C-alpha cells in the first residue's frame, strides 16, 4: 500500500473521530444548555401537566432572591480563596516533589490521590474527621491545643472554613501535578547558570521558576476556579448546605430548587446565571494570566 493511501486512510480515521467527538459534545453539552435556556423562560414544574412561557420573569425574580444572593456570594468567595490556597500549596509541593527518585515518585502518587476520590466519599470522610467527637478534635485535645471540642460544622463561620479547607485539600492534588509537570520542563542549566551568577533561592524562584511555570499556572488556576464555582458533591456530603444555609453553594441551591421545591424553570434560570458568571470569570482570569505570562 502506498504512502499517500496510508496518509489518506489516517486522515479519514481522524476525521471520523473528530465528528464523533463533536457529536458527543453537542449531545451532552450543547443540547442540555439549549434546553436549560428554554426551560428558564417557563414555569416548568414536574407536578403540573403543562409549562407556561413566562419570558424573563424567572430572571427578574432573581433580583429579589436573598437565598440566591447568599449562595452566590459564598460560592464566589470560596472559589477565589480555594483557588488561591490550592495553587500556592500546589507550587510549594511541586517544588518539594521535583525529584527523580522512587520515593518521590511514590509521594507524587499519594499527593494526587485526593483528586481521584469521589467528592461524596471525601465529604463523608471529612464529616467524620470534623465531627465534634471526631479525629481532629481528639488529636487537638490530646495535644492540649484546645480545652474543649470545636464544632467545626456547627457554626456558620467554621463550617465555611471547613468547606474551603476540604475543597482546597482536594484541589491541591491537581495543582501539584500541573505545576510539577511545568517544573520538569524547566532546563536545569538555567538554575546552574543563575547559581554561578550569585542568584539566591528567592531570585531563582522569582526570575526562573515563576516565569517558566506561568503557562501551567494559567491552566491550574482556570480549572480550579471552574471546579470550585460548580462545587456541589463535597458540600452536599459534608454540610448539606448548613448550618442555616451558610455553606449552600449556587450549584446546591439549583439542585434544591429543582428537586426539592420542584421549580424546574427557576432552577434553569439560576443555572444559566451560574454558567454566565463562571464563563465570564474564567475568560477574564485566563486573559489576565496570559498577559502576565508575557510580562514575566
From TrEMBL:
Coiled coil: none annotated. Pfam families: BPD_transp_1. InterPro entries: ABC_transporter_permease, MetI-like, MetI-like_sf. It is a multi-pass membrane protein. Residues 72-285 form the ABC transmembrane type-1 domain. CDD domains: TM_PBP2. The keyword Membrane applies. Gene3D superfamilies: MetI-like. Keywords: Cell membrane, Membrane, Transmembrane, Transmembrane helix, Transport. Belongs to the binding-protein-dependent transport system permease family. This is Binding-protein-dependent transport systems inner membrane component.
Amino acid at each position: 500500500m502506498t504512502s499517500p493511501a496510508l496518509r489518506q486512510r489516517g486522515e479519514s480515521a481522524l476525521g471520523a473521530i473528530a465528528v464523533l467527538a463533536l457529536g458527543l459534545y453537542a449531545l451532552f453539552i450543547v443540547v442540555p444548555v439549549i434546553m436549560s435556556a428554554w426551560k428558564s423562560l417557563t414555569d416548568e414544574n414536574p407536578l403540573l401537566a403543562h409549562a407556561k412561557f413566562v419570558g424573563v420573569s424567572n430572571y427578574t425574580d432573581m433580583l429579589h432572591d436573598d437565598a440566591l444572593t447568599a449562595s452566590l456570594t459564598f460560592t464566589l468567595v470560596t472559589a477565589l480563596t480555594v483557588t488561591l490556597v490550592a495553587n500556592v500549596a500546589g507550587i510549594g509541593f511541586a517544588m518539594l516533589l521535583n525529584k527523580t527518585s522512587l520515593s518521590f515518585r511514590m509521594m507524587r502518587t499519594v499527593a494526587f490521590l485526593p483528586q481521584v476520590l469521589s467528592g461524596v466519599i471525601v465529604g463523608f470522610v471529612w464529616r467524620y474527621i470534623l465531627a465534634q467527637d471526631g479525629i481532629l478534635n481528639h488529636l487537638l485535645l490530646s495535644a492540649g491545643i484546645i480545652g474543649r471540642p470545636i464544632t467545626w460544622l456547627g457554626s456558620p463561620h467554621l463550617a465555611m472554613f471547613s468547606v474551603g479547607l476540604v475543597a482546597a485539600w482536594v484541589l491541591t492534588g491537581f495543582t501539584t501535578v500541573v505545576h510539577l509537570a511545568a517544573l520538569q520542563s524547566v532546563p536545569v542549566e538555567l538554575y546552574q547558570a543563575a547559581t554561578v551568577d550569585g542568584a539566591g533561592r528567592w531570585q531563582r524562584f522569582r526570575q526562573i521558576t515563576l516565569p517558566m511555570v506561568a503557562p501551567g499556572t494559567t491552566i491550574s488556576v482556570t480549572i480550579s476556579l471552574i471546579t470550585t464555582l460548580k462545587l456541589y458533591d463535597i458540600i452536599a456530603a459534608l454540610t448539606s448546605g448548613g448550618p442555616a444555609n451558610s455553606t449552600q453553594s449556587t450549584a446546591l441551591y439549583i439542585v434544591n430548587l429543582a428537586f426539592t421545591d420542584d421549580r424546574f424553570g427557576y432552577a434553569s434560570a439560576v443555572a444559566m446565571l451560574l454558567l454566565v458568571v463562571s464563563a465570564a470569570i474564567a475568560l477574564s482570569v485566563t486573559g489576565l494570566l496570559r498577559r502576565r505570562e508575557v510580562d514575566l
